[in-house]
Design a protein that fits this description.
about 425 residues, Aspartate Aminotransferase, domain 1, Aspartate Aminotransferase, domain 2, 2 domains, 7-stranded mixed sheet, 4-stranded mixed sheet, 15 helices, globular, binds 4'-deoxy-4'-aminopyridoxal-5'-phosphate
Length: about 425
């Protein structure tokens, strides 16, 4: 077996050292700092297809994909060509442009719950806007979310949140007003009784419920179909707005997002990541009746200087166009299944407790026996072992999300050869642990 070669990260070290004087923690988004896995974060220089190169010119097979957007592969030639052509026509209008209609039509046609859509600039913005909409529509204030789910960094979501909040063990953030946090109730994922109990205890006060239809922000946790159906039923019965936060799953799980995959239609949907094809875009949409409440059609205020930005629209349009081609989701499903079954087999062979799974181009694994059906289960995983595994994989030329509590992503650019190299790397690292 090949012994892991120590990575040369001299330039990454220099750049990150300087960054720590300039940016809080050296980064502009917390998980990038590798705090939970330890060791030197990798500073990127460039990306292409399924690969990324760091500042020391080490090459990695990338399973982060910019945390989701890079589903057609990094720096895709067609997306790049479309962007170059658009740049000549201007980078920002702050006025209506036809590209917004084109992307809106693509979204409306694909996503079952969306009859009308508003574009924003991030997933956070989409989710905070949708909560305002739930409240405006119902005249109620409380919302329900699930422990370990992440919906961006707006005040009302920093209550038992996933992703970096969880990775850094912060669970709740200072600076969030107690009154805001008090209006966010938390239930346990895949546990419909915990949801019903909240509705019962807060009769007529719940504006809506938001969830990741497949969890990615406490690691990869799929829902049961009965759980999603139960949520649909209880929200309908109680007159609460059901929101699928498809920022991660949107256009990744299936052409029509997780709601198409599971056959459960929410009232509203938030989107991000893939929809911008690598540029900053988020979106929320739903039934016309709800969306007509948004200004200037209705009284609920929400706006954005760069919203509907022409470059961002072009990258989104091209990305969704590529994803609509025959075989796209089949490819994602095939390579990702091969990856996760290969890694799990390697764990079994080398005697490590590991569980995991995938749906289409989204996957994850935990260092524990499993099964993991909620964040409460995910907590049982051996995060110290994950940290060692992560570093070992880097040394083998594989870039994984630097946290046990984040899902992984594949792209149309990942080949079976990339997958097999990754599985070999995993076997080598697992043997050494
Ligand atoms: N919702 C979900 C499900 C997410 O995964 C994320 C980001 N990882 C967000 C919301 C927030 O999106 P953004 O980082 O673009 O603000």
């Amino acid at each position: 077996p090949a012994t892991a070669t120590k990575l040369n990260t001299k330039r990454s070290e220099e750049i990150f050292k300087e960054a720590q004087e300039l940016l809080p923690g050296g980064v502009n988004s917390p998980v990038r700092a590798f705090k939970s896995v330890g060791g030197q974060p990798i500073v990127f220089d460039h990306v292409k297809g399924a690969y990324c190169w760091d500042a020391d010119n080490n090459k990695y097979i990338d399973y982060v994909g910019s945390w989701g957007p890079a589903i057609v592969g990094h720096a895709n030639d067609e997306v790049n060509e479309a962007l170059k052509a658009q740049i000549e026509k201007g980078t920002s209008f702050g006025a209506p442009c036809e590209l917004e209609n084109v992307l809106a039509k693509m979204v409306i046609e694909r996503v079952p719950s969306v009859e009308m859509v508003r574009f924003v600039n991030s997933g956070t913005e989409a989710c905070l806007s949708v909560v305002r909409l739930m409240r405006a529509y119902t005249g109620r204030e409380k919302i329900i979310k699930f422990t370990g789910c992440y919906h961006g960094h707006a005040d009302q979501f920093l209550v038992q949140a996933g992703s970096g909040v969880l990775t850094l063990g912060l669970s709740d953030s200072p600076g969030v007003p107690a009154t805001t946090a008090a209006a966010t109730l938390t239930a346990q994922y895949n546990d419909i009784e915990s949801v019903k109990a909240l509705f019962e205890a807060n009769k007529g006060e719940i504006a809506g419920l938001i969830l990741e239809p497949v969890v990615g922000n406490s690691g990869f946790i799929p829902p049961t179909k009965e759980f999603l159906q139960g949520l649909r039923d209880v929200c309908t019965k109680e007159g609460a707005v059901l929101c699928f936060d498809e920022v991660m799953t949107g256009f990744r799980i299936a052409k029509g997002c997780a709601q198409e995959y599971f056959g459960i239609t929410p009232d509203v949907t938030t989107m991000g990541k893939v929809i911008g094809g690598g540029l900053p875009v988020g979106a929320y949409g739903g039934k016309k009746e709800l969306m007509q409440m948004v200004a200037p059609a209705g009284p609920m205020y929400q706006a954005g200087t760069l919203s509907g930005n022409p470059l961002a629209m072009v990258a989104g349009i091209k990305t969704l166009e590529i994803l609509a081609r025959p075989g796209a989701y089949e490819h994602l499903d095939k390579v990702t299944k091969r990856l996760i079954s290969g890694i799990l087999d390697a764990a079994k062979e080398t005697g490590h407790a590991m569980c995991g799974g995938s749906i289409s181009g989204m996957f994850g694994f935990f260092f524990c026996e499993g099964p993991v059906s909620s964040f409460e289960d995910a907590k049982a995983s051996d995060t110290a072992k994950f940290g060692k595994f992560h570093r070992g994989m880097l040394e083998q030329g594989v870039y994984l999300a630097p946290s046990q509590f984040e899902a992984g992503f594949t792209s149309l650019a990942h080949t079976e050869e990339d997958i097999d190299r990754t599985i070999e790397a995993a076997r080598t690292v697992l043997k050494s642990l």
